[in-house]
Specification:
Layout: H1 34-48, E1 60-64, E2 67-76, E3 82-83, E4 86-87, H2 88-101, E5 106-117, H3 122-139, E6 142-151, E7 159-168, E8 185-188, H4 194-204, H5 220-229, E9 235-237, H6 243-255, E10 258-262, H7 270-279, E11 293-296, H8 301-309, E12 318-324, E13 331-334, E14 340-342
Parallel strand pairs: 5-6, 10-13
Antiparallel strand pairs: 1-2, 2-7, 3-4, 5-7, 8-11, 8-12, 9-11, 10-12, 13-14
Helix pairs in contact: 2-3, 5-8
Length: about 350
Amino acid sequence: MADTAATPDMLSWTCPAPLRDRPRVVMGHGGGGALSAELVEQIFLPALGGTARAALTDSAAVELGGARLAFSTDSFVVRPLFFPGGSIGDLAVNGTVNDLAMSGARPAYLSCGVILEEGVELDTVVEVAAAIGAAARTAGVRVVTGDTKVVEAGHGDGVYLNTAGIGLIPPGVDLRPERVVPGDVVIVSGAIGLHGVAILSERENLRFGTDIESDCAALGGLVEAMLAVTPDLHVLRDPTRGGLAASLNEIAVGSGTGIVVRERSVPVPPPVASACAMLGLDPMYVANEGKLVAFVPREHAEAVLAAMRGHERGAEAVIIGEVVEEHPGMVVARTALGGTRVVDMPLGEQLPRIC
């Protein structure tokens, strides 16, 4: 239930859906949904010489000196800087490590760019730096280069971070939406919605009857355990901005297939379900920072699921659906009442600045 000591501003919890022909950037452009995709496809891809939407994954697979590398970069502007279960420092490391891991790569090296606002307390900077170092050691990566900038007071929000990373893709691993085919099994590694609700509860001073912590964690070890079963996984994705719904829609469009999800099988913890019911949110659209969704050939699904459950980051892994020939490019959920509903790509983000 809500904390009665302070009256939350309910209007600030959502990012209004803007008209797509607006001449200015709106918060929805940063939400990881349809507006984000349009921003990239209509402005940045043409300017940089790209054309294929299907190639827009969280990290790029490139060849260098005969080796296949994954290369990724990400920026972090989360508010507040510290939240239950993590901080902006944890997010910066784990977010980039996970982007590399979703290409099947073994993350190795990171860069870190730090933008500080004039007036931020040095104790805060010390705490953020310590979180970066601790998260990197836990993930088994090294921060080997970086940069620091300071902007005038009022032109930032304390601390912003940018991390880039590289990792080595093992031979025989080829993870991309184009490999998804009808019959593939969809597996999610655990409970969804924890990160987004944890940020919301801290930002708006809400309490939902129990403490909710972010699931922020590095997933490289879990991916290695899955690939040890078979390198023939089809695609992996960490459902961050836009939640599970955005990731499933991106894969459906990229593969040209349909996806059917059993709504009852999607692992939504009771505190997240209660919070979303109270606030009018759909858990499938709420951000995660320590979960993955995997598309696995049916013949390997049970073995991969067992390997996931044997790892601490996948102990609650569960099969939630399958890939079908019908309704290509569309995600459909079968409800507990026996009906179906379309799970659309979100336009923006239900809760901006969650990473």
